[in-house]
Design goal:
This protein has helices spanning 32-53, 72-76, 151-156; strands at residues 60-70, 93-98, 103-108, 113-115, 120-131, 136-141, 146-150, 160-166. With 167 residues, the protein is of the alpha+beta class. A four-stranded mixed sheet has the order 4-5-1-8. Strands 3-2-6-7 form a four-stranded antiparallel sheet. A hairpin with a 4-residue loop joins strand 4 (113-115) and strand 5. The mean pLDDT is 84.
């Protein structure tokens, strides 16, 4: 009986046949080199990620805030900044930095809510994944100047900024 493909045919020596027939032998060896190289590559990538992130998850929080602009003209125009406040509108950039000036994150002002009686617009913003281990936090809307709070103040304010601008 011929051997199945990929297997050797073994016959007892008493049949006068050599222990290995002429059937081609398929190697059962595993391709260890590609597996080893893939394992090394995975370890290298994991090591790079650990080195980049410091090896452990650092505690983070979500910073929230509001900016209240007092300007009756802007309030009358659906909180689209008017005249000297043309940079204050939905989509305006909000940047958070630490005491060294390193940018911790950025976001934008959301749509404003107008109060026509008070002539104000209130814009909200939110920034996830803010590290909680910085000494100071400074938030700046467009280029209107930074408002700085210490870590202790941020904890006391539940990680929230309340900014005001205008008349």
């Amino acid at each position: 009986m011929p051997a199945a493909p990929g297997y050797q045919q073994y016959l007892p020596a008493e049949f006068g046949q050599p222990r290995h027939s002429h059937v081609a032998v398929q190697s059962k060896r595993r391709p260890w080199k590609p597996i080893l190289l893939a394992g090394i590559a995975i370890l290298a990538v994991a090591g790079g990620v650990l080195a980049f992130t410091g090896g452990a998850d650092k505690p983070v929080t979500t910073l929230t805030g509001t900016m209240v602009l007092t300007d009756p003209d802007t309030a009358a125009y659906d909180c689209i900044g008017q005249d000297g406040y043309s940079d204050i509108s939905p989509g305006a950039t909000v940047i958070l930095t630490n005491e060294s000036g390193k940018i911790l994150g950025s976001t934008v002002l959301e749509n404003g809510t107008a109060d026509l009686d008070l002539g104000t617009c209130t814009y909200a913003f939110s920034l996830p994944d803010v590290p909680v281990d910085q000494a100071q936090y400074a938030v700046e809307v467009t280029s209107r100047g930074k408002v700085v709070s210490s870590r202790a103040e941020m904890v006391a304010q539940s990680w929230s900024f309340e900014l005001t601008l205008g008349d």
